[in-house]
Amino acid sequence: MVRRLLANWELKLLSVVIAFALWLVVVGGGKSQLAVAAVVEYTGLDGDLVLVGRPRDTVDVELEAARWAVTRLTPGAVRVRASLSGMREGENVVALSPDLVQTPPGVVVRRVTPARLQVRLAGAVAKTLRVVPQIRGTPEPDHAILRVAVEPATVQVKGPRSTIEGRTAVETVPVDIAGRHETVTQSVGLVLPESMYLTDQQRVLVTVEISRRSR
């Protein structure tokens, strides 16, 4: 049995090497051309400036990927880092190039469209605002709201001077209490104007105390 296995071993080894080489050509040599919408990440913004308006959040990226790498191109796997470092207040142009695109291994970037983005920057200020909880709906019949509390009671926001200076409060996402008969506690986000963002607390805890009406 062993003699049969060892017979012509040179030819058998050569056939294995040839088969492995062919496998590498088939698996590793195949390339796929495709285009994806890549998320734009704005980085390097000076602390006293903020993006205003609606900056573009995706760009088209043309890719060449090995067959084994195509499955790695999941949503969010391709990102473009657009640097705002050194830019000033007003209109600015950000240049995009293939070397700014982050991709999984086995993927080569051929082109980014558009190659330039226009962004507008404004002077930013930070301010502490009071949080106003918003309640939607009414409790179950014969029940009433006793108290509404929010924690924390204030948050710090940052944004364009023109948007923030005259503002004293910010509202929460509505807490739905329709048909409820007991206390409701929810972690919710805040409703922020365009170009304004939170610097610390991202969510707040709203408690709505509900009790049966006394007779």
Question: Could you describe the 3D structure shown?
Answer:
- This protein folds into two domains: 85 residues, RNA Polymerase Alpha Subunit, Chain A, domain 2, CATH 2.170.120.30; 89 residues, YbbR-like domain (RNA Polymerase Alpha Subunit, Chain A, domain 2).
- Helix content is 16%, strand content 49%.
- It is built from four helices and 17 strands.
- Strands 2, 5, 8, 11, 12, 15 and 16 form a seven-stranded mixed sheet that branches. A five-stranded mixed sheet has the order 6-4-1-3-7. Strands 10-17-14 form a three-stranded antiparallel sheet, with no helix packed on it.
- The longest helix is centred in the N-terminal third of the chain and has 21 residues.
- The protein is elongated, with a radius of gyration of 29 Å.
Low-confidence regions = 1-6, 16-28
Q: Roughly how much helix do the residues carry, as a percent range? A: 10-25%
Mean pLDDT: 85
Separation of termini? 97 Å
Oligomer: single chain
What share of residues are in beta strands?
over 45%
Task: List the domain count as a whole number.
Answer: 2
**How is the main sheet built?**
7 strands, mixed
CATH fold descriptor of the largest domain: RNA Polymerase Alpha Subunit, Chain A, domain 2
Task: Give the number of helices.
Answer: 4
Secondary structure layout plus pairing:
Layout: H1 2-6, H2 9-29, E1 31-43, E2 49-52, E3 58-66, H3 67-70, E4 79-83, E5 90-95, E6 101-102, E7 107-113, E8 116-132, E9 135-136, E10 143-151, E11 154-160, H4 161-164, E12 169-172, E13 175-176, E14 184-188, E15 190-191, E16 197-198, E17 204-212
Parallel strand pairs: 1-4, 8-12, 9-13
Antiparallel strand pairs: 1-3, 2-8, 3-7, 4-6, 5-8, 8-11, 10-17, 11-16, 12-15, 14-17
